[in-house]
Amino acid sequence: MLRNKQILVIDDTPSILSFLQVSLEVLGAKFYKAQTASYGLALCEQLHPDVVILDLGLPDKEGLNILPALKRIQAHSPAHPPIVIVLTVRNEAKYYEMAMDMGADAYLTKPFNVEELIDLIQQKLGPPPTGHLKLVSNG
To answer: Which pTM value belongs to this model?
Structure first.
């Protein structure tokens, strides 16, 4: 479950934004979107999301150019840096290597399987905390 996890998607394709919004909100995630790198950085600074899904081909800046800044935003706050998952049409090994070297936590290419993306998000977030007590009876 992604209940109450904040997920920011930085992508300039309206159909992908809409699809991801429906797919993530149904699992309880708080969904935010940005269609430019600049707005995505501003939202990340404001929201401190748990996960950022980042396209590389953005209209105002290259996604790779903002990746290090995304990873640094929360380094100065009590929370951990966001998990950054690159989601792009670029399937060349050089882009994968550059993204991973710059701090990406995962790299998926479009077209993509939404179940695979959700599984990846959950894997990167780790197991949910156990917030309940087990009652033990004697007898």
So the answer is: 0.88
